[in-house]
Amino acid sequence: MPFPQDFVWGTATSSYQIEGMFAGDGRGECIWTRFSHTPGKIADGSNGDVACDHYHRFPEDVALMKALHMDAYRFSISWARVLPQGTGTINQIGLDFYDRLVDELLRNGITPSGTLYHWDLPQALEDRGGWTNPDIPSWFAEYTDVVARRLGDRVKFWSTLNEPWCTAFLGYWLGVHAPGQRDQKLGFRAAHQTLLAHAAAVPILRQHSHDAKVGITLNLVPHDPASDKPEDVRVARMADVISNDWFLDPVFRGEYPAEALAELTALGLMEGIDASEVKAAKLPLDFLGVNYYMRWVHEYDPSAPGQSRNRFPDDAEFTDIGWEVYERGLLDTLLKVHRDYSPAEIYINECGAAYSDPDQADGEIVEDPKRVAFLRRYLGAAESALHQGVPLKGWFTWSLLDNFEWAEGYSKRFGIVHVDFATQKRTLKRSGIYMREVAKTGDVQVNVDNVSLP
Ligand code: IFM
Questions:
Q1: Rounded to an integer, what is the distance from CA 428 to the centroid of its chain?
Q2: pLDDT tens, position by position, 150-176
Q3: 123 vs 27, 50, 119, 130, 213, CA distance in Å?
Q4: Which position among 104, 163, 327, 437 bears the catalytic label?
Q5: What Rg, from alpha-carbon coordinates, does the chain have?
Q6: Residue 163 annotated in active site
Q7: Which domains does the chain carry?
Q8: Ligand 1, atom 10: nearest CA belongs to which residue?
Q9: pLDDT, tens digit (0-9, with 9 covering 90-100), for 260-289
C-alpha cells in the first residue's frame, strides 16, 4: 500500500553543517567553530567556515527542493547568528537571513520546519559552562523568544532541540563533539539542562507561533543483546535506557527511568542534579521527531565491567560511516514509541546514509545505488509502521546536501544532492530522483533506473 497523499515529504539539514559565512554579517563564534579549528578534532582537518555556502546559495537550494517535489524543509537556526553572545544584543542581519529563507520556501510552496538548536552553541555561553550551567534554560528561553517573535508567524513546525543525547553525551562525556569535554558527570548534567531548556522553550513557541506544531527531535537507537546471556541482556538494556528512555521518559512522563536513575545515583553520576526538576519537561507536544539510522548490538565485556563491546551478526551490512544497515530497528523503534509513549504524531525527522560518492560529479546525475537501496529498505519499514497504526505523518531525508559531517568533516557524504566542495556545484544524485518519485507516487518500490531529471 502506498503512503497516503497527505504524507509530508521533506529533506533536513542543519545550520553549522551547510550555511558557512561563519564570521560574516555579525555572526558570533559557536562551539563548532572553536572545536573544528582545534587541531586533531576533525578527521579531515576541515571546518564549517564555508560548508555548502548555503547562506548565499539558499535560493538555488530551495529550487532544488522544489525540483525534488518536496513538501517541507527541516532546517535549524544558528543561535550565534541571531545572538552572537548567546544572550543580549540581537543581530538583526542574522535574523534577516532566516526571514529570507522562510519567505523563499513559502514562495515555492515548501513548508518550513524549524529546529531551534542543532548543536552550534554560542562559544560565549560555553565559556560560562554551556549546557552544564543551570542558567542555560533561561538563556535558551531568551533565544527562543527572539526567534519565535520573528519567524513564528510563518514557521508552523518547531523542534526545540535536535538529538539532545548527542549534545550532552558526545559533547560533554565522550568528547568527540564540541565542546570536547570528557567527563561522564558533566554529560548527565548537560542532558538534564537540555530537558529543562526544552521545557522552557515550548510555551514561548506556543505564545508567538499560533497554531504551530511543537515537538522535540530525538535520535532513537535500538540496543540489542548479542545473545540471551543475562550479562549481554543487562548491558544492552542499560545502553537502551541511557540513550532512549533517558530522554523519552522525561518528555512524556516527567521523570527519569527509575532503575537507571537509582543506579546512576549510586555511582555518583547524578551529583548536583535535582532529578525531580524533569517533571517540567512533560508538556503536551504535537509531535515527536524521530531520527533513525542504525542499531547497536552489545556483548558484555568482562575486561571492562559494566561495559560492552559491539558484536554484530556475521552477515551485517554497514554504511561508509560504519553504521549497521538495519531497517527492522526503525519499525521496532516506531512501534515501541507508539506503544509506550503514544505521541500524537511522529515525523521521521532524519534518516539517510553515508556512502562514498566521487568528489567531483562528471555527468548530470551522480549514481548512488547503495543509497537508493538503503532508502527503499528504510522507507519500507516506515510504511509497515504506518500500516500497523503508528501515527507517522512525514519523512525528512538526511540530507538535502552533502555537508560538514561533524567530527568526520567532509569525508562522509549523506546528501541526495551532491556538492563539489571546490566549486559549490550541486548535482542531483539518483537517490534524489528516487525520493522525488516516492514523493510523487507514495510508492517506495518505484523504479527510477531510467527516470531522468526534471
Ligand atoms: O549529520 C548528522 C546530523 O547533524 C544529526 N543526525 C545524524 C546526522 C548523521 O550523522
A1: 22
A2: 999 999 999 999 999 999 999 999 999
A3: 11, 18, 11, 8, 30
A4: 163
A5: 21
A6: yes
A7: 8-441 (3.20.20.80)
A8: 405
A9: 999 999 999 999 999 999 999 999 999 999
